[in-house]
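pls design
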């Protein structure tokens, strides 16, 4: 958009007046897939000043958190600082802070580090872990939503293995080396496969004093794993994990956990110091929005252009929004990265079109398929054109997950690390970088 472009605005007498407009201030809350893709696309037009707000100073790649948690890759492989990312984007600024509330009438937001004015506000905060009101699980289980979660889980598992190696009672060793995973979606399946494969490969190398480890339990409340994927993918996941020795419990949920015993809905109890919670997500409360703008599950209701209902200049993207006007998804889109990426890019284009006085484009999700890695050289891929699995599916998974990672250096590092680690199943990252505090069961300082 040229800087000498003229814009139209309604004035008090409802007539149209032509005037030259100052730069438009855009504030984005959330630096995930939606927020980053929106910012990058919109930054191509110098008539917009963009401020991205996030509580972390880095963007990260959630699909690979489980590989950080299992000490398979480093945190630096899937993180990238916002300021580094935007170095050459002269109209983007980063604000490090936690979002608190919207003051919609006065067009500003409050964060714990300051106040930011906006002409348009874009909400892209994503989801948070849903513990379904169970305080014991919230207090004692490990979630998989952040870099901190992944590092804390890695430390807990490594510290636990050191503890087990000092014991002489084999039955105690077995109990303390059990791991329970709640949730049979991609995260749960990928974690179970990785832990089972690495456990069988590294035991003799790193822990020769241990004759055998405990078991990996995968507990899922529905009657299948990977419920949102095809039946072929579901069957493949069951078969491969079964061969790896994972104990799979379907139609079962985790009801309680006291940091030592996991209690299931069937009444069964499993001795385990580690429960990994991958069983559900919820949305953060967004203070300052009209009550009628929030729908089922706290998802924010938006129109076909991602404008929040009953607002004039507030937009919502990705997991947190509910768009019911897409005929193929009348109940809203799946909470997937591709939806967030596509919505972010389109909203940027639409904002440029809007200020150019041109017709905007309603959002329609293009389904590019879904996939999950299960074990070494084993993955499943569901595309609109069909299903495939095995080594080629694993290569496809690897390629697709490398593309969105920011920075060539990250792509090169992670490619090398991945292939070397996959071949050996023996990455050299099993380092306890934060000692467990005796006052914090999750190993948080």
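designed seq:
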């Amino acid at each position: 958009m040229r800087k000498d472009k003229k814009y139209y605005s309604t004035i008090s007498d409802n007539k149209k007046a032509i005037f030259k407009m100052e730069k438009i201030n855009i504030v984005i809350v959330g630096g995930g897939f939606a927020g980053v893709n929106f910012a990058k696309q919109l930054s191509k037009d110098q008539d917009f000043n963009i401020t991205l707000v996030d509580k972390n100073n880095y963007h990260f790649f959630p699909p690979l958190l489980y590989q950080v948690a299992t000490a398979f890759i480093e945190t630096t492989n899937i993180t990238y600082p916002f300021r580094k990312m935007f170095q050459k984007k002269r109209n983007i600024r980063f604000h490090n802070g936690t979002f608190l509330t919207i003051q919609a009438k006065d067009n500003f937001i409050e964060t714990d580090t300051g106040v930011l004015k906006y002409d348009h506000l874009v909400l892209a905060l994503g989801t948070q872990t849903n513990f379904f009101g169970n305080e014991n699980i919230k207090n004692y289980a490990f979630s998989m939503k952040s870099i901190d979660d992944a590092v804390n889980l890695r430390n807990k598992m490594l510290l636990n293995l050191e503890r087990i190696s000092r014991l002489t009672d084999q039955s105690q060793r077995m109990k303390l080396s059990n791991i329970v995973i709640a949730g049979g979606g991609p995260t749960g399946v990928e974690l179970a496969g990785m832990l089972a494969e690495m456990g069988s490969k590294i035991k003799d190398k790193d822990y020769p004093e241990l004759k055998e480890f405990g078991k990996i339990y995968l507990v899922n409340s529905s009657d299948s794993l990977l419920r949102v994927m095809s039946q072929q993918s579901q069957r493949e996941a069951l078969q491969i994990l079964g061969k790896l020795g994972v104990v799979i419990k379907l139609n079962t949920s985790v009801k309680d956990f006291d940091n030592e015993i996991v209690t299931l809905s069937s009444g069964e109890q499993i001795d385990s110091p580690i429960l990994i919670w991958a069983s559900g997500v919820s949305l953060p409360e967004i203070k300052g929005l009209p009550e009628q703008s929030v729908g089922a599950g706290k998802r924010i209701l938006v129109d076909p252009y991602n404008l929040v209902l009953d607002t004039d200049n507030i937009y919502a993207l990705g997991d947190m929004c509910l768009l019911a006007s897409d005929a193929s998804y009348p109940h809203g889109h799946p909470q997937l990265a591709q939806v967030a990426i596509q919505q972010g890019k389109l909203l940027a284009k639409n904002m440029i079109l809007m200020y150019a006085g041109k017709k905007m484009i309603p959002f329609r999700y293009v389904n590019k398929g879904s996939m999950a890695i299960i074990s070494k050289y084993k993955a499943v891929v569901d595309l609109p054109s069909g299903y495939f699995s095995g080594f080629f599916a694993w290569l496809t998974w690897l390629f697709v997950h490398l593309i969105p990672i920011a920075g060539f250096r990250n792509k090169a590092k992670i490619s090398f690390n991945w292939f070397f680690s996959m071949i050996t199943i023996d990455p050299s990252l099993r380092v306890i970088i934060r000692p467990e505090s005796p006052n914090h069961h999750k190993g948080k300082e």
